[in-house]
Amino acid sequence: MKMRAPHLTAAMLAHTLSISTALASDLPAPNADNNVYFGDVHVHTGWSFDAFTNGSKTTPADAYAWAQGKPITGSGGPEMQIRTPLDFYMVADHAEYMGVFNQMANPDSPLSKTALAKGVTSPDANVRIQTFAGVLRDMSAGKRDPQLSDPVLAGSVYGTRS
Prior knowledge:
The chain is mainly α and 162 residues long. The chain has one domain. The chain is 42% helix and 8% strand. It contains 8 helices and 4 strands, in the order αβααβββααααα. The N and C termini lie far apart (92 Å). The relative contact order is 0.11. About 10% of the residues have low confidence.
């Protein structure tokens, strides 16, 4: 036999609500020196060789616009917009080859003519990832692709030439 006690359930709910209201009123006032902020301090855009080879086409300006709550077009995808703008945000693109790999997708750039550009811009994600892994292996071994350090080629990224 099942016993029902709806009056007890309602009474318990009312008691629980009164406790939570009382507890909320016992909270200290907000403290401006102890506020919580939300953000991100490690974001890569298409200017970083790793993000670009993994499909990112965004720029630092895109990243900051997104963090401010503005809509941006995703990397080949639909428009994206964060619901609540972030309090802080830092683009942390890699200094090594910054802006070089994304220029490999620009047919007017001399960087697009390099052998490495074929793997970096491949439509096959596996080829791009393997190319990225090869660059990482070379960097770990202290080997740098001389074409990527050539002032004429690398200078094209920033609009300067040696």
